[in-house]
Design brief:
The complex is a heterodimer. Chain A is 44% helix and 25% strand. Chain A is of the alpha+beta class. In chain A, the strands form 5 sheets. Chain A has a 5-stranded antiparallel β-sheet with strand order 4-3-7-6-5, with helices on both faces. Chain A has a 5-stranded antiparallel β-sheet with strand order 9-8-12-11-10, sandwiched between helices. A 5-stranded mixed β-sheet of chain A has the order 14-16-17-19-18. In chain A, helix 10 (263-308) runs antiparallel to helix 11 and helix 12 packs parallel to helix 13. A 5-stranded parallel β-sheet of chain B has the order 2-1-3-4-5, with helices on both faces. Mean pLDDT of chain B is 82; it is low at 124-131. Classes of the chains: A alpha+beta, B alpha/beta. At the A-B interface, helix 10 and helix 11 of A face helix 1 and helix 5 of B.
Chain lengths: 490, 131
């Protein structure tokens, strides 16, 4: 590349220059060569024009882009003449015109008018004209699209997960994001949570939360740690398994938490355990009753035979009494030990309130005998498919439990009422409540807190409730315990 | 009039002697066995008119004995006794071809009534033939 010296349009003859000028010119020529080789080697394409849109410089990238063989081919030409595609309505044309006029740089993305592909254009004012730097950004565009896709995929899986998920920044322990399941279960809105410090959103016990965080920070992850999560209004309490991993997002250290709600699972497991022990009782009850009934049969039969003998007529009352007592033993076995789950109930349309009312004289005498007080609040309820014999047993067991849970003068209240699609039988006592450590064991056969209990009373209740497709729950506290049996109306 | 012979099968000695005593009062001939093998041997020997069989026995169960009896002489009526109160088990009995069922503990009067109701129709026929 060589420098041609012009003076107001006329070429000057280098022979007339003094040695000083010649030396300066050589120096200038060297500097020019260095500059143009730098500009030619940059990956961007560069075109510079004067105020009349005449091209004063193109680098090799721009020449290739415009498919020109040499610089001379383009120098001095009008930019818009060699780019007839850049009509007045194109972004390139308008942007260049604007920079030329306003003298402030502009940057935009546009499809090249010469070759296929997206380009990043930067237009700068320069001397009286402008220069345009442009480079192909297809690869960047593609990467961005891929990133967008993967972000979309992440968001979909993040939100569609049945687990509660949250992302927490380790810089300041604030929530970066939570998923839909998290929001739905815990009752917060995303806006309430994102950006807040973890201590401000009290989803779990602070002490336990801190301990878990410390473990994650130390070991990088935790897996299926048990915990309790609370909803915003503290009404929903979830038993959960917490997993967390320490990772990075955009160079920021974060913790991704995955919380598996196992409340239902635990409930089912407890239920299965209870049913299992009921099955065991069923087998035991069946075996025991078989073994006891054989000797009863023999003794009862011979008593009957002896009763019929003439010489024993004077003892007739005793024989009758003995036979009656044996019948009572048998009925105890039948009534009390027949916990058989598969036992067919003889259900017919009956009214819960009537069954309770018919039992009141018996219950009241029981109350008086135990120095307790029985209160009733029986509202009209629709008829249900019930086995009255079993319901009487259920009521008797619940009320006797209530009597035993209270001290002298204690009150047990029986209620029947309708709530939506359910008929409810409730038995409330004002005793001291069920100690927390035994609450899980309630209904487990042979579990009892009483000195003389068999541990079968509530098991029998649960199995009667099961057979009626009803549910039994209880509320307990220092002011007493209430058992609710909920029958479904069909 | 030929006396009816009744075979009682129960592993409990008390039950065996009770039923023997009660039915002898009604002039039946009663023999008893404590298990399946003994019962099947007696069956060949005494040709009973009725078998009273306990369901739960050591070795062969009452139902298994009943099956053998049905093969040897399908006309012998069988009364099955059980101390199980399970209704499901009682329903299954019908599928095993058992028509008569006696739950333990039973009333002696009921036992006598059941036995005579099974054996009486035959007795009536017998009597009719001779009168």
């Amino acid at each position: 590349m060589s420098l041609i010296i012009h003076d107001k349009g006329n070429k000057l003859n280098p022979d007339s220059f003094t040695p000083q000028i010649c030396s300066n010119l050589v120096d200038l020529q060297n500097k020019y060569n260095v500059m143009s080789s730098i500009i030619n080697s940059i990956p961007d394409n560069l075109i510079a024009v004067d105020q009349n849109w005449r091209i004063i410089f193109v680098n090799s990238g721009a020449r290739r882009h415009l498919s020109a063989t040499g610089q001379q081919e383009l120098l001095g030409k009008n930019l818009w003449e060699i780019l007839p595609q850049a009509t007045e309505d194109t972004l390139i044309y308008q942007s260049c015109q604007k920079v030329m006029k306003d003298r402030t740089p502009l940057r935009f993305e546009a499809v090249s008018l010469v070759k296929p592909g997206w380009f990043d254009f930067r237009v700068y004012p320069c001397l009286n004209g402008i220069f345009i730097l442009f480079s192909n950004i297809d690869a960047i565009k593609e990467a961005k699209a891929k990133l967008q896709e993967s972000r979309k995929l992440f968001l979909t899986t993040f939100n569609a997960s049945p687990y509660m998920k949250s992302i927490i920044s380790l810089k300041d322990f604030t929530y970066i994001d939570v998923n839909d399941t998290w929001v739905n279960k815990l009752g917060y809105t995303r806006q309430e949570v994102v950006g807040k410090h973890v201590c401000q959103i009290a989803v779990m016990d602070l002490k336990h939360g801190r301990k878990l965080f410390r473990t994650v920070l130390r070991h990088g992850r935790i897996y299926n740690e048990e915990g309790i999560f609370y909803s915003k209004n503290k009404k929903d309490i979830y038993q959960v398994l917490i997993s967390a991993v320490k990772t990075k997002l955009d160079n920021e250290k974060i913790i991704v938490l995955s919380i598996n709600d196992i409340t239902e699972l635990r409930k089912y497991q407890a239920e299965v355990k209870r049913l299992d022990s009921l099955n065991l009782v069923e087998e035991m009850a069946s075996g025991i009753s078989h073994e006891i009934r054989n000797p009863i049969t023999t003794v009862r039969g011979f008593l009957q035979i002896l009763r019929g003998k003439e010489e024993n007529t004077k003892y007739l009352d005793y024989y009758n009494l003995m036979i009656e007592e044996l019948d009572r033993v048998n009925s105890i076995i039948t009534e009390y030990l027949s916990l058989t789950k598969n036992k067919k109930t003889e259900r017919s349309l009956a009214n819960l309130k009537d069954i309770v009312e018919n039992m009141l004289p018996l219950l009241e005498s029981d109350a008086v005998g135990n120095d307790r007080c029985l209160e009733v609040d029986l509202r009209q309820v629709p008829d249900l498919l019930l086995d009255p014999k079993e319901i009487r047993q259920l009521l008797l067991n619940l009320i006797r439990n209530g009597f035993e849970a209270t001290t002298d003068g204690g009150v047990v209240k029986v209620m029947t009422y309708q709530e939506g699609n359910q008929v409810i039988l409730a038995v409330a006592d004002n005793g001291c409540g069920i100690p927390e450590e035994v609450r899980d064991k309630i209904g487990t056969p042979f579990f009892t807190t009483k000195e003389t209990g068999t541990g079968l009373g509530l098991s029998v209740c649960y199995s009667i409730v099961d057979r009626h497709n009803a549910q039994m729950t209880f509320d307990t506290g220092p002011d007493g315990t209430t058992f609710y049996v909920r029958f479904n109306l069909n | 009039m030929k006396e009816h012979t009744i075979l009682v099968v129960d592993d409990q000695k008390g039950i065996r002697s009770l039923i023997t005593e009660a039915l002898q009062e009604e002039s039946y001939q009663v023999c008893s066995a404590g298990g399946g093998i003994e019962a099947l041997a007696l069956l060949q020997k005494v040709k009973p008119d009725l078998i009273i069989l306990d369901m739960k026995l050591p070795g062969m169960s009452g139902l298994e004995i009943n099956k053998e009896v049905a093969l040897l002489d399908p006309n012998i009526p069988v009364v099955l006794m059980t101390a199980y109160g399970d209704l499901n088990k009682i329903n299954n009995l019908k599928e095993h071809g058992i028509k008569y069922f006696l739950p333990k503990p039973f009333d002696i009067a009921d036992l006598k009534k059941l036995v005579s109701s099974i054996l009486r129709p035959q007795a009536k026929k017998y009597m009719l033939r001779f009168t």
